[in-house]
Amino acid sequence: MPANRTQPPAKADEQQRPRERMVETQLAARDIADPRVLDAMRQVPRHLFVDEGLLDRAYWDGPLPIGHGQTISQPYIVALMTQALGLRGTERVLEVGFGCGYQTAVLARLASEVYAVERIAALFEKGRANLRAQGIENVRLKLGDGSLGWEEHAPFDAVLVAAYTRNVPELLRSQLSTCGRLIIPLGDRDSQLLVLYGKNAHGEVTRKVMAACRFVPLVKNGSP
Ligand code: SAH
């Protein structure tokens, strides 16, 4: 069965041109080379995940506010994090901090199942509505503290954390499968690095710094 069997075919829309331009100038012209990632970024209608008032900036080269002091990441960062996970279509992915659901929609096109957690109820609802409107079905959503992972559905082949913290939460590490990959922004408010962790076949942990970045904080049990 094809991995993205639950996805409806992409529809042409009035924002297709700006989206194509985004893919060419912001992603392919930089270091996004995985054709599956480029294709997913071409398909997912980012403008339908942001507030209507921001429509003219939906495909610009930067982050946008999504309410409640949170942001949807710059398209390049979404693509970079996704590409780093090396998804081939069979994976179970955990996403922490799904906000408006845009990154979730990209992951859903590239993996078999996505388990996504968001702690702010209003954003949980917004993200859920956006994903439903796209007819995406291979995604399970949960309201709560994603730094605890989602034990019930572990282990995950890939974990993507969309908020920064000082150290990798232990439960996210332990819920990663053998050879699984985890990408997370680490640091403090003013200085963060996007770090990719992997495990090789011997179970040894590998670590690679991907980029400097700027995310909102990962809030654990009600405190930053
Ligand atoms: N990737 C999302 C949003 C990124 S902003 C998008 O594309 O819209 C980071 C998100 O992480 C915010 O929505 C914030 O509420 C959420 N978040 C922060 N700490 C969290 C935690 N412990 N568990 C779950 N979500 C968390």
Provide an overview of this structure:
- The protein is α/β, with parallel strands linked by helices and 224 residues long.
- It has one domain (9-213): Vaccinia Virus protein VP39 (Rossmann fold).
- 26% of the residues lie in helices and 27% in strands.
- The protein has helices spanning 16-28, 35-43, 75-84, 102-110, 121-133, 170-174, and strands spanning 64-67, 70-72, 92-96, 113-118, 139-143, 156-161, 176-188, 191-199, 205-213.
- The strands form 2 sheets. Strands 5-4-3-6-7-8-9 form a 7-stranded mixed sheet.
- A hairpin with a 5-residue loop joins strand 8 (191-199) and strand 9 (205-213).
- Helix 1 (16-28) packs antiparallel against helix 2 (35-43) and helix 2 (35-43) packs across helix 4.
- Residues 1-5 have low confidence and may be disordered.
- S-adenosyl-L-homocysteine (SAH) binds next to strand 2, helix 4 and strand 4.
Blueprint (SSEs and pairs):
Elements: H1 16-28, H2 35-43, E1 64-67, E2 70-72, H3 75-84, E3 92-96, H4 102-110, E4 113-118, H5 121-133, E5 139-143, E6 156-161, H6 170-174, E7 176-188, E8 191-199, E9 205-213
Parallel strand pairs: 3-4, 3-6, 4-5, 6-7
Antiparallel strand pairs: 1-2, 7-8, 8-9
Helix pairs in contact: 1-2, 2-4
Bound molecules: S-adenosyl-L-homocysteine (SAH).
